[in-house]
Design brief:
Blueprint: E1 7-9, H1 12-22, E2 27-35, E3 43-51, E4 54-58, H2 67-73, E5 79-82, H3 86-96, E6 103-105, H4 106-111, H5 121-129, H6 149-155, H7 162-176, H8 179-187, H9 201-204, H10 214-234, H11 238-241, H12 247-253, H13 258-263, H14 269-284, H15 289-295, H16 306-326, H17 330-333, H18 336-342, H19 346-353, H20 357-362, H21 364-371, E7 376-381, E8 384-389
Parallel strand pairs: 1-4, 2-5, 5-6
Antiparallel strand pairs: 2-3, 3-4, 7-8
């Protein structure tokens, strides 16, 4: 592992020089330290980078423009090496609308090399490089200035092993003929669609939604949108604006008016005094066509279907078996909940599997079972288990 010496970059000229020095390097390892508590947007507090030319610590607080570093992230000729880098790339996309090019992630790669997904950086370094990492500053206050020199030294531990990990995992995956699968999975992070989020997903995924009548559903949709807007305006966390634990109580009480909210002992008086009138307005305004269209996505509660549960579980076990046989973490392949969502939905299956590595791993027969889930039959006879599509006895 490389030396702990580093250059601390806290002036714009230094960052530009960093870019000029490294704009032609073949690889760049990096990590970030960030703080997300008590604010709407997570704040990037430190960027650690390692290149063939040295070790760098970049202080975003002192820089007006991170453009030179972002230019390296988007350069297709430089391989960016990270561990669990999707979090870092999501930050850069959120703050700067930047999508990386040419990425390699050691956590993703490890999942194709026999490790559980997600594997910790510490465990991967210990197993692959026989190095022990200290995490003495794992919960440091990265917003505090000036930095502690020992704190910065430890921050390098998150990037110094990355180059050697890249080399070790690349060799393993080449031997397994899985390097192209890992590259395909990492390439998902180079697509802006990977970072896109439905602004209504928080409401649609709420356990409350299916139990509400239409008017309450509209209010819940608006309440989440209102909370997000206020949090964004004030740069507060959403929990600081309105704790999630209060939302269900407010939704159930708002129909009776502001007085009912005030009389509900579970809702703090401060919340009602500050926002009660707004809650009442949000509840009573007529639903718009756009809101009705969003609510059309809410799936009605389904009756328990033991047959479907058994078939989904069987397919899930087959995923695990295929993964085990190929030394790939099943958690990276497909989740049980995703199987339930994909069943008998050709468009969703095509979008998720396409012609990529998951389809190659699971095989066309598995895809046919998903496509024809409603006709799938499970037979258990004389100690054998058979999955087949009904009216097609030759396919099993």
């Amino acid at each position: 592992m490389s030396t702990r010496s580093y250059l601390l970059i806290s002036h714009q000229k230094e960052l530009q020089q960093f870019y000029e020095t490294n704009k032609s390097v073949p690889w760049l390892c990096f990590d970030t330290e960030f703080v997300g508590e008590k604010r709407f947007l997570t704040r990037i507090c430190l960027i650690q980078a390692v290149t063939p030319h040295g070790n760098y610590l970049i202080d975003p607080f002192e820089l007006k423009d991170l453009g030179p570093f972002l230019d390296l992230l988007t350069d297709p000729n430089i391989c960016k090496i990270t561990h669990a880098g999707d979090n870092d790339y999501r930050l850069f996309y959120t703050h700067f609308d930047v999508v990386p090019r040419n990425v390699f992630d050691t956590q993703v790669a490890a999942a194709f090399a026999g490790y559980k997904y997600p594997v910790s950086f510490k465990k991967l370094v210990e197993n692959e490089l026989r190095l022990s990492l200290s995490k003495g500053y794992a919960v440091a206050d990265w917003e505090a200035r000036p930095f502690n020199s020992q704190q910065l030294s430890y921050a390098l531990d998150d990037v110094l092993p990355l180059y050697e990990l890249w080399q070790a995992l690349t060799e393993k995956l080449k031997h397994k003929d899985r390097l192209h699968w890992a590259a395909e999975e990492c390439a998902r992070w180079e697509d802006p669609a990977f970072y896109a989020r439905d602004p209504h997903q928080e409401a649609l995924s709420s356990g409350l939604m299916k139990a509400l009548n239409t008017r309450e559903q509209v209010f819940l949709l608006r309440l989440f949108a209102w909370r997000r807007q206020i949090a964004s305006q004030k740069d507060y966390s959403k929990e600081m604006v309105l704790p999630s634990k209060l939302i269900g109580t407010i939704v159930k009480s708002v129909s009776s008016g502001r007085d009912a909210l005030r009389q509900n002992r579970r809702i703090p008086e401060k919340i009602v005094n500050q926002y009660g009138a707004e809650f009442d307005r949000l509840y009573r305004a007529p639903a718009t066509d756009d809101e009705r269209a969003v609510l059309d996505q809410v799936q009605p509660e389904e009756m328990e279907n033991p047959r479907e549960e058994i078939l989904i579980e069987m397919l899930n076990l087959l995923v695990k078996q295929k993964s085990f046989e190929n030394g790939i973490s099943p958690a990276l392949v497909i989740a049980r909940s995703t199987l339930a969502r994909l069943k008998s939905d050709p468009e969703a299956i095509e979008e998720f599997l396409g012609n990529g590595w998951r389809r190659q791993l699971l095989g066309e027969r598995f895809v046919e079972w998903l496509l024809n889930f409603d006709q799938l039959q499970l037979d258990i006879n004389d100690g054998s288990i058979e999955l087949r599509i009904m009216n097609d006895a030759d396919y099993h």
